[in-house]
Structures are given as structure tokens and as C-alpha cells.
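Long-time lurker, finally posting.

We've been working with ATP-grasp domain-containing protein (Phocaeicola vulgatus) and I want a structural starting point before designing mutants. I don't trust myself to interpret raw outputs, so I'm hoping someone here can both generate the C-alpha cells and explain anything notable. Sequence follows.
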Amino acid sequence: MSKKKILMLGGSAQQVIAIKTAKQLGYYTVLCDYLPDNPGQYEADKFYAVSTTDADAVYRIAREEKVDGILAYASDPAALPAAMVAEKLGLPTNPSESVAVLGVKHKFRQFLAEHGFACPKVYTFHPDDDMEEIKVAVKDFSFPVVVKPTDSSGSKGVSILKDTQDLDKAIGEANSYSRNKTLIIEEFIESSFPTVIGGDIFVWNGKIILYGEMSCLRDDDGKGLIPIGKKKPSGLNNKQVKRVHHELQRLISMLDIRFGEMNIELLLDRNDNVHFLEVGPRAGGNMIPLQLSDAFGTDLVKANVLVAMGENPQIEGIPREGCFVTYVLHSHKDGIFAGVDFSSEIAPYIYRKVIYKQKGEPVEIFNGAGKAIGIIFLHFHNEKQVEDFCERKDEFVKVILGK
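Top reply, 14 upvotes:
Generated this for you. Predicted structure of ATP-grasp domain-containing protein:
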């Protein structure tokens, strides 16, 4: 009897684990990735040098290979092509229309406003629109405002403005990360909680069976825009947790999301109303599935593969003791990677290290999630230890640059 086949869209360093997991489950793995140096090609059973966003090419490969499922693991750009192709072939998928809504911010904001979810004022425009017209359109907005592309993730191309003085610069930054050339300006949400809430949820048969909300660590001691890690438990009180869970399930039900891991990013305003910044129709980056697997004692990578093949995800979702933290290794300047120095104080709490760079390779200044050097996973006994790490992280972890 021949093996069932799964088509994997994306073979980056963070996606290799999904390919390996699929093989361990006994599936024949077919991979699409246009980057010639993707590491996934050396793990997959068959490789096609094809862009994951080329839906027509992906469809041809899926049909020719007679695949039984398609998985765009931890990939924003590939999520919609995966849904469209799976829908066309009658394979397990969420509605492509819903995936399209979640995939671009202006459509998502429109959906939220139309369905009674908390939502700030938003203005959608093209980067080449007249600057004076844009300024007139947002003159009644409450500042500060956020300028961002509608089709990027990891806070790439996002700027916060106190006025319109640097609007042209912010638009240029957003445009540099935009594929669809549709940008938005939206009011900044004053939060009642000190950080953005991020993480993942897992859906099965239209119900959220694992809530993995976490507190986000950001650059500039948590006040910046670029994600540098997550911590669980999140620190939300019981009332806030219930409100977040209720709104998430309401959103999932309205969009008819049937299964899979979804990446979430949200804020609670001063009245604890839940504002969704993003709900990505795929597993989160920065190895969130691994972190949540550790925190819940389950295997979310395995669950992602299983549901893509129409199988039960076998998730337990029972939180384990202690605090689980990830920290993204990064540099504040360009240079040559020479290693990472971990202090003896913090070393006992690090249980996994994933380093993307080899010694001698170039390192770029960390101005977006794609410039990460690696990720470390830590398990603390209590919240006080987490706070100490967050306050002194630059003392505990030092990226060494050579010449």
C-alpha cells in the first residue's frame, strides 16, 4: 500500500520540523519553496523549486502528485494558496474566503467593524496616493496612529506616529514590506495591559481546543514593535482571560474556521475590550508551536500535520507548571557572528537553543523578525524569575560579533 502524500508549502529553518514530523508519521512529503538555499529540500521526499504563492503552480503539483493534504506551516504568504488549492481538490481546508479575510489587514479590519468587534478608526490607501489627501483623511483620527502594510507579519514595516510630520517616511517603510501595495493608518489603542497578547490557538471541528495566549516581549523593554519572545502564563487576570477566549471563539465561529493552528495578536483597551491586531490562518513564527507544546505537554507540530490530512489532532491542552519563555537572539548592529555568551545565572533555565547562524556568517541589525540569529527556550519556576530575566536580558544573553 502506497503512503499518503502531504504537500508542504515552505522549507525554511522554522518549517523543517513540520517536514520531519510528517515523515515520522509515515507520510510521503512533497515540498514547494522558491528559495534555492532552503534547508527543507534536504528533508522532503520530493522537492519542487516553485513559489508557495504561485497558486496555479501549486495546484498543478498537488494534482500531479495526487496529494492527500496541504500544509502551509507557519507561513503567511502560503496560507491562502494552500486553502485555494485544497478547496479545488476537495482536500481538508478552511474556507479560502475566510483565509483571505484573515490574510490582509484592511479586509480583516472591515470584517471586525461589520461584525461588532472592537476596532479602531482605519484608513486604507495606496503608497502612491497624494500625501495631502492622506493627511486630510486622517485629520480627525486620535493620535498617535500606526502606519503598516496590510500583508506582512512580525511587525515588519510598522511605524507609530505622534503627528503627520514623518508620515512620508512611515509610508515608505510600510511600502518596502508590502506585496499588495495596500497600506493602512489606524488609531493607536491605549492598552489596559502592559504588553501585546500574542501566541496561538488550536481549532478542531470549529471549536478552540487549546488557548495559547501569551504576553509578548518586544524590543526596548517591551515597548517596541518587533517581537523578541513570548512568555506563558500571560499575566492576564481571570476576567480578561474569559473575555479574550469568548471573542476568539466568536471570531472563529463567524469565519467558519474548522481546524488548525492560528496565530493571534491582540490588545485590551482601557475598558478591557478585545482588539484583534492579527489572527493569522497558520501556526505562529518564532517557534511558537514548540513553546506551546512544551507548556501544554502536547505536540502541536504533529497536530498541524494530522489535521491537514483530515486526522484527529490528538491535543490534550493541559498547562504544565512553571513559566515558559522564548527569547529571540538578535544584534543591535551589523557584523560577523562569533557566538552567543550565556551567563551562568541564566544557563540552568535554558532547555533548548536554536541558532540559525554559523560562526563567520554576516549578522544584520535587528529591525525585523527576519533578522533573528536564533531562539532560546527557558523554563522558570515563577513569575519573579521571568521579570528578572526581562529586566536584565542584555546582561544574561550577549551576541558576540567578530571582525
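Before you design anything, note these points.
The longest strand covers residues 207-218.
The chain has three domains: 5-93, 121-187, 197-402.
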